[in-house]
Specification:
Layout (H helix, E strand, L loop, with lengths): L10 H10 L4 E5 L3 E2 L39 H4 L2 H9 L2 E4 L6 E6 L2 H10 L4 E4 L4 E6 L5 E5 L2 E4 L5 E2 L9 E2 L2 H4 L30 H16 L5 H16 L7 H13 L4 H15 L2
Parallel strand pairs: 6-10
Antiparallel strand pairs: 1-2, 1-3, 3-9, 4-6, 4-8, 5-6, 7-8
């Protein structure tokens, strides 16, 4: 990664140079935002899941799936549609994990000071507000691992700001450990729901149906790449709309949902508020 930074706004040469060295690239709009889904992919019609673990077999001519659209194929990068995107782009982004790299994004002077005291010295790249520390090796990405510190590697993109200075160090365990969340003790919320109207057996009380629903809800929360608060609320709402009126939910089921939410960084209070708001919305 010794390519020169392109300060003239001509991003295509920089993108092609990076791709030639095995770094997957993507054009970024102003605000460090990737190009949005095209109309053909509206509602994930192509089968893709933007910014998640399983991008679909999208054949769109434009870069429309965030990090999953990054590529090293010069024919794609230099295609007519992508060239239009490069001309309108504000910057070049790259997929660190796709290049076998991890970026520790330090967003302020306090974060930089912490890194200098804690992390092995490696290649650094100055950013607008702080520094990117680059390590050789890929890992899972994670936001806000500590104040002012994000990790960008697999399933993430970073802005290309130049090759940086210094010798790149192998990804250390201390960085990998930052993405490992400590187990959180979950206090299950007590659930009191009205009995099934008119009495009778609950139509949903089958182990397979209920367990599949809870598992799908856990997956939806765990795969949220943004807007976690909203995702948790909508998921709780969906679960309660299906199972909340017939009394089939137990504290064990709620604990599973709260655990999934807390693993994404939600506090117990936020979980409780989301659960209460969902019940109120449904009149439970």
């Amino acid at each position: 990664m010794t390519q020169p930074t392109d300060f003239r706004g001509e991003h295509l040469p920089t993108a092609l140079s990076l791709a030639a060295s095995g770094v997957p690239v993507l054009p970024l709009r102003a605000g460090k935002v990737p190009y949005g889904n095209c109309r053909r992919c509206a509602g994930n019609a192509c089968g893709g899941r933007p910014n998640m673990k399983t991008p679909g077999p999208c054949i769109c001519p434009a870069p429309c799936h965030g990090w999953a659209a990054t590529t090293t194929d010069p024919h794609v990068i230099n295609s007519l549609t992508w060239r239009r995107a490069w001309r309108a782009a504000a910057a070049v982004a790259y997929h660190p994990g796709g290049a076998g790299l991890t970026v520790v994004d330090l967003d302020n002077p306090a974060a930089i000071a912490w890194a200098r005291e804690t992390l092995p010295v490696t290649r650094t790249v100055p950013t607008t507000r702080g520094e990117h520390w680059l390590y050789q090796g890929a890992m899972q990405s994670a936001n806000a691992v500590r104040p002012g510190v994000d990790i960008k590697s697999t399933m993430a993109y970073a802005r290309w700001l130049g090759p940086g200075t210094g010798t790149m160090t192998a990804l250390p365990d201390v960085v990998r450990a930052l993405a490992v969340k400590e187990p959180t003790a979950v206090r299950p919320a007590a659930i009191t729901v009205p009995a099934l109207a008119g009495g009778g057996e609950c139509p949903h009380r089958t182990p397979a149906y209920l367990d599949r629903g809870i598992a799908m809800a856990e997956q939806r929360i765990s795969e949220a790449s943004g807007g976690v608060h909203a995702t948790v609320y909508r998921t709780f709402l969906a679960v309660l709309s299906t199972h909340g009126r017939c009394g089939c939910l137990t504290e064990a089921h709620t604990a599973r949902l709260f655990t999934a939410a807390q693993a994404k960084g939600e506090s117990f209070r936020h979980c409780t508020d989301a659960w209460t708001n969902a019940r109120t919305r449904l009149g439970l």
